[in-house]
Amino acid sequence: MHHKYRKWWAYAFIAPTMITLLMFWLIPLGFALILSLMHWDGFGEKTFVGLDNFIYLFQDPVFQRAVVNTVYYTVLTIPTNIIIALLLALALNKIPGKDVYRVFYFMPVVTSAVSVGVIWIWILNGDFGILNSVLSTVGIAGPNWLADDRWVIPAIAIVGVWWGLGFNVVIFLAGLQGISRSYYEAAEMDGATTMQKFFHITLPLLSPTTFFVAVMAVISSFQVFDQVFVMTQGGPGKASHVVVLHMYEMAFQKGQFGVSTATAVVLFMSILLFTIIQFKLSKRWVHYEG
Question: CA dihedral in degrees (243, 244, 250, 253; nearest 10)?
Fold first, then answer.
């Protein structure tokens, strides 16, 4: 094929992706950036207000509480999710019928947010919930999880870990199966123990997978919304009010689309900043074969 035609074929193949990226990412992002500088109630004329929406946002104590709650949720869920997912993947990697268990753990991921929320409202109920019943069998009096402002974020974090666990288990399993047996055979010939093989072979060679899971977990945790909306609506008070819920309330309950879009811009920039930091730090601990 002539070089000129080959180039046009290449453009034709990437065109669907580029058009999708333009229509559903770049144009909405540009519109959001412009709207964040406007005052707009969703119906009337838009008025340019410069950075007033951002100034209002950062002075709003409700938004400040939402940021704190979102960071608290992120700190609770990410290490917990990664550690449990890794341990489960290590266990599943050595037992027969791992595909059955993989489906079992992945089922919550494809369950709707409303279903997950309703089920966990019942499980976490302070009076007749299953979780408090289990804790009472070992002499622990469980709190009223969703009505106690000290426990509502940990309760939602438990749901978040359970909901996203299956996805990370599958990713870790794929990473484990990509590690060559030759490394373990060589270590066994040198008399390495199980722990030595784990810390000197498995963890380093699994670091690219761990890095991917960590990046995705940060992005997902910063955007927590579904379970909060269904289970608490941000309550009690503002104890579980998170950034995406703040964005929703400003737009669809208070009609302040400019402030809501400014919230989205701040969230986008925060996720972008943390992702860049993660990529910078990854050079210190992520190891690639070859």
Answer: -130
The length of the chain in residues reads: 290
Query: Using an 8 Å Cβ cutoff, are 200 and 187 in contact?
Result: yes
Give Cα 159 distance to the centre of its chain: 12
List per-block mean pLDDT (blocks of 10 residues) for the chain, which spans 290 residues: 73 90 89 91 86 93 95 95 92 78 78 87 89 89 89 94 90 90 89 90 92 93 92 90 95 92 94 93 80
For the chain, list the domains and their CATH numbers: 59-283 (1.10.3720.10)
- Decide: pTM greater than 0.70: yes
Q: CA 227 to CA 73: how far, in whole Å?
A: 12
Phi and psi at residue 202, to the nearest 5°: -65, -55
Q: Which of 172, 170, 179, 174 is nearest to 202 (CA)?
A: 179
Q: What token pair was written down for 42?
A: 């969703």
d(CA 243, CA 222): 8
- Contact between residue 188 and residue 108 where contact means Cβ atoms under 8 Å apart: no
Structure tokens at 128: 């007749």
* Pairing, β 38-39 against β 47-48: antiparallel
DSSP codes, 5-39: HHHHHHHHHHHHHHHHHIIIIIHHHHHHHHHTTEE
